[in-house]
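Co-fold these.
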Amino acid sequence: MSENITLYGYWRSSAAYRVRICLNLKALGYESQSVHLVRNGGEQHSAEYHELNASELVPVLVDGDIQLNQSLAIIQYLDEQYPQAPIIPEPSPIRYQALAMAQDIAMEIHPLNNLRVLQYLERECSCNQQNKVEWIHHWIHEGFTALEEKLTHHRQQYGNCIYSVTDSPSVVDICLVPQVYNALRFGVDMTSYPIITAVVEACNQLPAFIAAMPENQEDAKS
Amino acid sequence: MSENITLYGYWRSSAAYRVRICLNLKALGYESQSVHLVRNGGEQHSAEYHELNASELVPVLVDGDIQLNQSLAIIQYLDEQYPQAPIIPEPSPIRYQALAMAQDIAMEIHPLNNLRVLQYLERECSCNQQNKVEWIHHWIHEGFTALEEKLTHHRQQYGNCIYSVTDSPSVVDICLVPQVYNALRFGVDMTSYPIITAVVEACNQLPAFIAAMPENQEDAKS
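Predicted complex below.
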Protein backbone atom coordinates (compact mmCIF):
# COMPACT_ATOMS: atom_id res chain seq x y z
CA MET A 1 0.00 0.00 0.00
CA SER A 2 2.77 2.41 0.83
CA GLU A 3 3.78 2.81 -2.81
CA ASN A 4 0.63 4.89 -3.26
CA ILE A 5 1.27 7.55 -0.64
CA THR A 6 1.83 11.15 -1.70
CA LEU A 7 2.48 13.95 0.79
CA TYR A 8 1.77 17.51 -0.29
CA GLY A 9 3.84 19.70 1.98
CA TYR A 10 6.53 22.34 2.27
CA TRP A 11 9.99 21.91 3.77
CA ARG A 12 9.48 24.53 6.49
CA SER A 13 5.85 23.75 7.38
CA SER A 14 5.71 22.37 10.94
CA ALA A 15 2.56 20.41 10.16
CA ALA A 16 4.11 18.74 7.08
CA TYR A 17 7.28 18.06 9.13
CA ARG A 18 5.12 16.15 11.65
CA VAL A 19 3.69 13.90 8.95
CA ARG A 20 7.13 13.27 7.43
CA ILE A 21 8.40 12.06 10.83
CA CYS A 22 5.37 9.77 11.20
CA LEU A 23 5.79 8.27 7.71
CA ASN A 24 9.50 7.70 8.37
CA LEU A 25 8.95 6.09 11.79
CA LYS A 26 6.55 3.67 10.12
CA ALA A 27 9.02 3.12 7.25
CA LEU A 28 6.36 4.04 4.70
CA GLY A 29 7.70 5.18 1.35
CA TYR A 30 6.00 8.24 -0.11
CA GLU A 31 6.25 10.70 -2.91
CA SER A 32 6.83 14.28 -1.80
CA GLN A 33 5.00 17.08 -3.62
CA SER A 34 6.19 20.56 -2.76
CA VAL A 35 3.59 23.31 -2.30
CA HIS A 36 5.62 26.52 -2.01
CA LEU A 37 3.91 28.63 0.65
CA VAL A 38 5.46 31.93 -0.44
CA ARG A 39 6.24 31.80 -4.18
CA ASN A 40 3.58 33.18 -6.55
CA GLY A 41 1.55 34.49 -3.63
CA GLY A 42 1.51 31.01 -2.12
CA GLU A 43 0.96 27.86 -4.19
CA GLN A 44 -1.46 26.60 -1.50
CA HIS A 45 -3.94 29.12 -2.96
CA SER A 46 -3.76 27.63 -6.48
CA ALA A 47 -6.92 26.11 -7.99
CA GLU A 48 -5.13 22.76 -8.19
CA TYR A 49 -4.24 22.68 -4.50
CA HIS A 50 -7.63 24.08 -3.48
CA GLU A 51 -9.15 20.90 -4.94
CA LEU A 52 -7.04 18.88 -2.49
CA ASN A 53 -7.83 21.05 0.53
CA ALA A 54 -10.31 23.92 0.41
CA SER A 55 -8.65 25.30 3.56
CA GLU A 56 -5.56 26.01 1.42
CA LEU A 57 -3.19 24.80 4.13
CA VAL A 58 -0.53 22.08 4.01
CA PRO A 59 -0.18 19.15 4.46
CA VAL A 60 -2.46 16.85 2.49
CA LEU A 61 -1.85 13.12 2.38
CA VAL A 62 -3.15 11.04 -0.50
CA ASP A 63 -3.13 7.26 -0.01
CA GLY A 64 -5.14 5.42 -2.65
CA ASP A 65 -8.74 6.61 -2.19
CA ILE A 66 -7.91 8.57 0.98
CA GLN A 67 -7.33 12.31 0.62
CA LEU A 68 -6.80 13.90 3.99
CA ASN A 69 -5.72 17.19 5.51
CA GLN A 70 -4.89 18.12 9.13
CA SER A 71 -1.63 16.62 10.37
CA LEU A 72 -3.09 15.06 13.54
CA ALA A 73 -5.92 13.40 11.58
CA ILE A 74 -3.31 12.10 9.11
CA ILE A 75 -1.16 10.77 11.97
CA GLN A 76 -4.15 8.98 13.51
CA TYR A 77 -5.02 7.54 10.08
CA LEU A 78 -1.47 6.27 9.54
CA ASP A 79 -1.30 4.87 13.06
CA GLU A 80 -4.56 2.95 12.72
CA GLN A 81 -4.00 1.73 9.16
CA TYR A 82 -0.26 0.96 9.42
CA PRO A 83 0.12 -0.37 12.98
CA GLN A 84 3.90 -0.93 12.83
CA ALA A 85 5.84 1.42 15.14
CA PRO A 86 2.79 2.67 17.08
CA ILE A 87 2.71 6.46 17.47
CA ILE A 88 -0.30 6.95 19.75
CA PRO A 89 0.38 4.87 22.87
CA GLU A 90 -2.23 2.24 23.75
CA PRO A 91 -2.48 2.07 27.52
CA SER A 92 -4.67 4.55 29.32
CA PRO A 93 -3.99 7.07 30.82
CA ILE A 94 -0.72 7.67 28.89
CA ARG A 95 -2.64 7.40 25.59
CA TYR A 96 -4.83 10.38 26.39
CA GLN A 97 -2.10 12.39 28.09
CA ALA A 98 -0.08 11.97 24.89
CA LEU A 99 -2.97 13.16 22.72
CA ALA A 100 -3.52 16.12 25.04
CA MET A 101 0.16 17.14 25.03
CA ALA A 102 0.34 16.81 21.25
CA GLN A 103 -2.72 19.06 21.03
CA ASP A 104 -1.21 21.50 23.55
CA ILE A 105 1.47 22.07 20.90
CA ALA A 106 -0.60 21.67 17.73
CA MET A 107 -3.61 23.70 18.93
CA GLU A 108 -2.28 26.26 21.40
CA ILE A 109 1.15 27.17 20.00
CA HIS A 110 1.41 26.38 16.32
CA PRO A 111 -1.83 27.87 14.87
CA LEU A 112 -0.97 31.25 16.37
CA ASN A 113 2.44 31.39 14.71
CA ASN A 114 1.36 30.14 11.31
CA LEU A 115 2.40 32.10 8.21
CA ARG A 116 -1.12 33.38 7.43
CA VAL A 117 -1.48 34.76 10.97
CA LEU A 118 1.85 36.58 10.80
CA GLN A 119 0.82 37.98 7.41
CA TYR A 120 -2.47 39.26 8.90
CA LEU A 121 -0.66 40.88 11.86
CA GLU A 122 1.63 42.71 9.44
CA ARG A 123 -1.11 43.70 7.00
CA GLU A 124 -3.98 44.60 9.33
CA CYS A 125 -2.39 45.32 12.71
CA SER A 126 0.68 47.26 11.48
CA CYS A 127 2.98 44.80 13.26
CA ASN A 128 6.63 45.16 12.29
CA GLN A 129 9.21 42.36 12.31
CA GLN A 130 10.02 42.90 16.00
CA ASN A 131 6.33 42.81 16.99
CA LYS A 132 5.92 39.55 15.07
CA VAL A 133 8.96 37.97 16.70
CA GLU A 134 7.66 39.01 20.14
CA TRP A 135 4.28 37.45 19.27
CA ILE A 136 5.98 34.20 18.23
CA HIS A 137 8.16 34.11 21.36
CA HIS A 138 5.18 34.84 23.62
CA TRP A 139 3.08 31.87 22.49
CA ILE A 140 6.04 29.49 22.37
CA HIS A 141 7.10 30.43 25.92
CA GLU A 142 3.49 30.11 27.17
CA GLY A 143 3.23 26.67 25.63
CA PHE A 144 6.70 25.37 26.49
CA THR A 145 6.50 26.56 30.13
CA ALA A 146 3.34 24.49 30.63
CA LEU A 147 4.69 21.54 28.64
CA GLU A 148 7.99 21.43 30.57
CA GLU A 149 5.97 21.28 33.79
CA LYS A 150 3.72 18.52 32.41
CA LEU A 151 6.77 16.49 31.28
CA THR A 152 8.27 16.93 34.77
CA HIS A 153 5.09 15.64 36.41
CA HIS A 154 4.93 12.77 33.94
CA ARG A 155 8.45 11.68 35.00
CA GLN A 156 7.56 12.00 38.70
CA GLN A 157 4.54 9.78 38.13
CA TYR A 158 5.86 7.18 35.66
CA GLY A 159 9.66 7.42 35.97
CA ASN A 160 12.16 8.69 33.44
CA CYS A 161 11.69 8.03 29.75
CA ILE A 162 13.80 8.82 26.70
CA TYR A 163 11.13 10.60 24.68
CA SER A 164 8.27 12.83 25.83
CA VAL A 165 6.04 10.21 27.45
CA THR A 166 7.52 6.79 26.61
CA ASP A 167 10.73 5.05 25.54
CA SER A 168 9.62 5.02 21.90
CA PRO A 169 8.74 8.12 19.87
CA SER A 170 5.09 9.12 20.13
CA VAL A 171 2.73 11.71 18.71
CA VAL A 172 4.02 14.19 21.33
CA ASP A 173 7.56 13.99 19.96
CA ILE A 174 6.22 14.28 16.42
CA CYS A 175 4.63 17.60 17.35
CA LEU A 176 7.42 18.78 19.66
CA VAL A 177 10.40 18.45 17.33
CA PRO A 178 9.00 20.74 14.59
CA GLN A 179 7.85 23.24 17.23
CA VAL A 180 11.34 23.40 18.74
CA TYR A 181 12.84 23.72 15.24
CA ASN A 182 10.54 26.71 14.77
CA ALA A 183 11.47 28.15 18.17
CA LEU A 184 15.19 27.98 17.41
CA ARG A 185 14.61 29.52 13.98
CA PHE A 186 13.13 32.56 15.72
CA GLY A 187 15.83 32.70 18.41
CA VAL A 188 13.77 31.51 21.38
CA ASP A 189 15.96 30.94 24.46
CA MET A 190 15.47 27.28 25.40
CA THR A 191 17.46 27.25 28.67
CA SER A 192 14.28 27.07 30.80
CA TYR A 193 13.21 23.85 29.07
CA PRO A 194 15.78 21.15 29.90
CA ILE A 195 13.43 18.17 29.45
CA ILE A 196 12.07 19.46 26.14
CA THR A 197 15.64 20.04 24.97
CA ALA A 198 16.80 16.56 26.00
CA VAL A 199 13.80 14.90 24.35
CA VAL A 200 14.37 16.75 21.09
CA GLU A 201 18.08 15.90 21.13
CA ALA A 202 17.20 12.22 21.56
CA CYS A 203 14.68 12.37 18.73
CA ASN A 204 17.06 14.12 16.39
CA GLN A 205 19.51 11.24 16.62
CA LEU A 206 16.99 8.88 15.01
CA PRO A 207 17.14 8.41 11.23
CA ALA A 208 13.35 8.96 10.93
CA PHE A 209 13.66 12.42 12.46
CA ILE A 210 16.86 13.29 10.57
CA ALA A 211 15.33 12.41 7.19
CA ALA A 212 12.28 14.56 8.02
CA MET A 213 14.29 17.69 8.88
CA PRO A 214 13.39 20.74 6.79
CA GLU A 215 16.93 21.14 5.48
CA ASN A 216 16.89 17.57 4.19
CA GLN A 217 13.87 18.13 1.92
CA GLU A 218 14.29 18.55 -1.81
CA ASP A 219 12.42 21.87 -1.84
CA ALA A 220 14.50 23.40 0.96
CA LYS A 221 15.29 27.02 0.14
CA SER A 222 13.86 26.64 -3.33
CA MET B 1 -18.30 5.02 36.34
CA SER B 2 -20.09 8.14 35.22
CA GLU B 3 -20.83 9.18 38.82
CA ASN B 4 -17.14 10.12 39.10
CA ILE B 5 -16.92 12.57 36.22
CA THR B 6 -16.19 16.23 36.93
CA LEU B 7 -15.90 18.82 34.17
CA TYR B 8 -13.98 22.01 34.92
CA GLY B 9 -15.25 24.55 32.42
CA TYR B 10 -16.86 27.89 31.82
CA TRP B 11 -20.28 28.52 30.33
CA ARG B 12 -18.96 30.55 27.37
CA SER B 13 -15.82 28.51 26.62
CA SER B 14 -16.23 26.82 23.21
CA ALA B 15 -13.91 23.99 24.23
CA ALA B 16 -15.89 23.26 27.43
CA TYR B 17 -19.14 23.50 25.41
CA ARG B 18 -17.79 20.73 23.10
CA VAL B 19 -17.17 18.41 26.03
CA ARG B 20 -20.60 19.13 27.55
CA ILE B 21 -22.26 18.10 24.26
CA CYS B 22 -20.21 14.90 24.16
CA LEU B 23 -21.05 13.98 27.76
CA ASN B 24 -24.74 14.63 27.10
CA LEU B 25 -24.82 12.62 23.85
CA LYS B 26 -23.36 9.69 25.79
CA ALA B 27 -25.83 10.30 28.65
CA LEU B 28 -22.96 10.51 31.14
CA GLY B 29 -23.79 12.34 34.34
CA TYR B 30 -21.12 14.76 35.54
CA GLU B 31 -20.47 17.42 38.10
CA SER B 32 -19.82 20.84 36.65
CA GLN B 33 -17.10 23.02 38.23
CA SER B 34 -17.05 26.59 37.00
CA VAL B 35 -13.69 28.25 36.33
CA HIS B 36 -14.50 31.91 35.73
CA LEU B 37 -12.22 33.06 32.90
CA VAL B 38 -12.54 36.77 33.63
CA ARG B 39 -13.25 37.27 37.36
CA ASN B 40 -10.24 37.88 39.64
CA GLY B 41 -7.94 38.13 36.63
CA GLY B 42 -9.13 34.72 35.45
CA GLU B 43 -9.62 31.79 37.83
CA GLN B 44 -7.82 29.53 35.32
CA HIS B 45 -4.62 31.18 36.57
CA SER B 46 -5.23 30.20 40.22
CA ALA B 47 -2.76 27.84 41.90
CA GLU B 48 -5.58 25.34 42.39
CA TYR B 49 -6.50 25.20 38.71
CA HIS B 50 -2.85 25.27 37.62
CA GLU B 51 -2.48 21.91 39.41
CA LEU B 52 -5.20 20.50 37.13
CA ASN B 53 -3.77 21.98 33.92
CA ALA B 54 -0.46 23.83 33.83
CA SER B 55 -1.61 25.38 30.52
CA GLU B 56 -4.23 27.31 32.53
CA LEU B 57 -6.92 26.72 29.91
CA VAL B 58 -10.33 25.08 30.25
CA PRO B 59 -11.67 22.44 30.08
CA VAL B 60 -10.28 19.69 32.28
CA LEU B 61 -12.14 16.42 32.74
CA VAL B 62 -11.58 14.30 35.84
CA ASP B 63 -12.89 10.73 35.71
CA GLY B 64 -11.59 8.57 38.55
CA ASP B 65 -7.81 8.43 38.03
CA ILE B 66 -7.96 10.23 34.69
CA GLN B 67 -7.23 13.96 34.68
CA LEU B 68 -7.24 15.29 31.15
CA ASN B 69 -7.15 18.61 29.31
CA GLN B 70 -7.67 19.41 25.60
CA SER B 71 -11.27 19.00 24.44
CA LEU B 72 -10.47 16.74 21.47
CA ALA B 73 -8.35 14.42 23.62
CA ILE B 74 -11.20 14.34 26.15
CA ILE B 75 -13.72 13.53 23.40
CA GLN B 76 -11.55 10.70 22.08
CA TYR B 77 -11.16 9.39 25.66
CA LEU B 78 -14.92 9.47 26.26
CA ASP B 79 -15.63 7.87 22.88
CA GLU B 80 -13.21 4.99 23.46
CA GLN B 81 -14.10 4.40 27.12
CA TYR B 82 -17.88 4.91 26.85
CA PRO B 83 -18.75 3.45 23.43
CA GLN B 84 -22.49 4.25 23.56
CA ALA B 85 -23.56 6.89 21.00
CA PRO B 86 -20.28 6.84 19.01
CA ILE B 87 -18.91 10.31 18.28
CA ILE B 88 -15.96 9.53 16.01
CA PRO B 89 -17.37 7.50 13.09
CA GLU B 90 -15.83 4.08 12.52
CA PRO B 91 -15.73 3.46 8.77
CA SER B 92 -12.86 4.88 6.76
CA PRO B 93 -12.65 7.35 5.03
CA ILE B 94 -15.48 9.18 6.86
CA ARG B 95 -13.73 8.58 10.19
CA TYR B 96 -10.66 10.55 9.14
CA GLN B 97 -12.57 13.21 7.22
CA ALA B 98 -14.56 13.80 10.41
CA LEU B 99 -11.39 14.14 12.50
CA ALA B 100 -9.91 16.50 9.91
CA MET B 101 -13.02 18.71 9.77
CA ALA B 102 -13.24 18.82 13.58
CA GLN B 103 -9.59 19.90 13.62
CA ASP B 104 -10.23 22.46 10.86
CA ILE B 105 -12.50 24.14 13.41
CA ALA B 106 -10.65 23.37 16.62
CA MET B 107 -7.15 24.13 15.29
CA GLU B 108 -7.56 26.75 12.57
CA ILE B 109 -10.44 28.90 13.83
CA HIS B 110 -10.89 28.59 17.56
CA PRO B 111 -7.31 29.03 18.90
CA LEU B 112 -7.01 32.35 17.07
CA ASN B 113 -10.14 33.78 18.67
CA ASN B 114 -9.48 32.58 22.18
CA LEU B 115 -9.73 35.06 25.06
CA ARG B 116 -6.00 35.14 25.79
CA VAL B 117 -5.24 35.97 22.14
CA LEU B 118 -7.75 38.83 22.08
CA GLN B 119 -6.25 40.10 25.34
CA TYR B 120 -2.75 40.03 23.78
CA LEU B 121 -3.96 41.88 20.66
CA GLU B 122 -5.44 44.61 22.85
CA ARG B 123 -2.49 44.83 25.24
CA GLU B 124 0.48 44.47 22.88
CA CYS B 125 -0.84 45.37 19.40
CA SER B 126 -3.04 48.36 20.38
CA CYS B 127 -6.07 46.65 18.82
CA ASN B 128 -9.35 48.32 19.70
CA GLN B 129 -12.73 46.57 19.91
CA GLN B 130 -13.39 47.00 16.16
CA ASN B 131 -9.95 45.58 15.24
CA LYS B 132 -10.64 42.57 17.46
CA VAL B 133 -14.07 41.97 15.94
CA GLU B 134 -12.54 42.17 12.43
CA TRP B 135 -9.88 39.67 13.51
CA ILE B 136 -12.57 37.29 14.84
CA HIS B 137 -14.70 37.65 11.68
CA HIS B 138 -11.70 37.10 9.42
CA TRP B 139 -10.70 33.72 10.86
CA ILE B 140 -14.29 32.51 11.15
CA HIS B 141 -15.03 33.43 7.51
CA GLU B 142 -11.77 31.78 6.36
CA GLY B 143 -12.67 28.61 8.22
CA PHE B 144 -16.39 28.50 7.42
CA THR B 145 -15.86 29.19 3.70
CA ALA B 146 -13.60 26.14 3.45
CA LEU B 147 -15.84 24.03 5.68
CA GLU B 148 -19.01 24.85 3.73
CA GLU B 149 -17.21 23.72 0.57
CA LYS B 150 -16.03 20.51 2.23
CA LEU B 151 -19.55 19.75 3.51
CA THR B 152 -20.88 20.35 -0.03
CA HIS B 153 -18.34 17.89 -1.50
CA HIS B 154 -19.15 15.40 1.24
CA ARG B 155 -22.84 15.47 0.21
CA GLN B 156 -21.96 15.12 -3.46
CA GLN B 157 -19.87 12.07 -2.63
CA TYR B 158 -21.95 10.32 0.04
CA GLY B 159 -25.44 11.81 -0.35
CA ASN B 160 -27.32 14.09 2.00
CA CYS B 161 -27.05 13.67 5.76
CA ILE B 162 -28.70 15.42 8.68
CA TYR B 163 -25.56 16.36 10.57
CA SER B 164 -22.13 17.36 9.26
CA VAL B 165 -20.95 14.00 7.94
CA THR B 166 -23.49 11.38 9.07
CA ASP B 167 -27.08 10.95 10.25
CA SER B 168 -26.00 10.90 13.88
CA PRO B 169 -24.08 13.67 15.61
CA SER B 170 -20.31 13.35 15.34
CA VAL B 171 -17.19 15.10 16.53
CA VAL B 172 -17.60 17.61 13.67
CA ASP B 173 -20.97 18.75 15.01
CA ILE B 174 -19.56 18.91 18.52
CA CYS B 175 -16.94 21.39 17.29
CA LEU B 176 -19.20 23.23 14.84
CA VAL B 177 -22.07 24.16 17.14
CA PRO B 178 -19.92 26.07 19.68
CA GLN B 179 -18.04 27.77 16.83
CA VAL B 180 -21.30 28.97 15.25
CA TYR B 181 -22.54 30.10 18.68
CA ASN B 182 -19.36 32.16 18.91
CA ALA B 183 -19.79 33.51 15.36
CA LEU B 184 -23.33 34.69 16.10
CA ARG B 185 -22.20 36.25 19.36
CA PHE B 186 -19.81 38.43 17.37
CA GLY B 187 -22.36 39.20 14.64
CA VAL B 188 -20.88 37.12 11.81
CA ASP B 189 -23.18 37.05 8.76
CA MET B 190 -23.98 33.35 8.19
CA THR B 191 -25.90 33.69 4.90
CA SER B 192 -23.02 32.25 2.86
CA TYR B 193 -23.07 29.05 4.89
CA PRO B 194 -26.42 27.29 4.29
CA ILE B 195 -25.21 23.76 5.05
CA ILE B 196 -23.44 24.82 8.24
CA THR B 197 -26.58 26.70 9.30
CA ALA B 198 -28.88 23.74 8.58
CA VAL B 199 -26.60 21.31 10.44
CA VAL B 200 -26.44 23.55 13.49
CA GLU B 201 -30.23 24.02 13.47
CA ALA B 202 -30.66 20.24 13.40
CA CYS B 203 -28.20 19.78 16.25
CA ASN B 204 -29.81 22.45 18.38
CA GLN B 205 -33.09 20.56 18.39
CA LEU B 206 -31.48 17.67 20.26
CA PRO B 207 -31.72 17.63 24.07
CA ALA B 208 -27.98 16.88 24.36
CA PHE B 209 -27.12 20.08 22.52
CA ILE B 210 -29.79 22.16 24.26
CA ALA B 211 -28.61 21.13 27.72
CA ALA B 212 -25.02 22.04 26.75
CA MET B 213 -25.84 25.57 25.56
CA PRO B 214 -23.92 28.31 27.38
CA GLU B 215 -27.11 30.01 28.60
CA ASN B 216 -28.26 26.78 30.20
CA GLN B 217 -25.21 26.49 32.46
CA GLU B 218 -25.39 27.39 36.13
CA ASP B 219 -22.50 29.84 35.88
CA ALA B 220 -24.00 31.73 32.91
CA LYS B 221 -23.48 35.46 33.35
CA SER B 222 -22.19 34.92 36.86
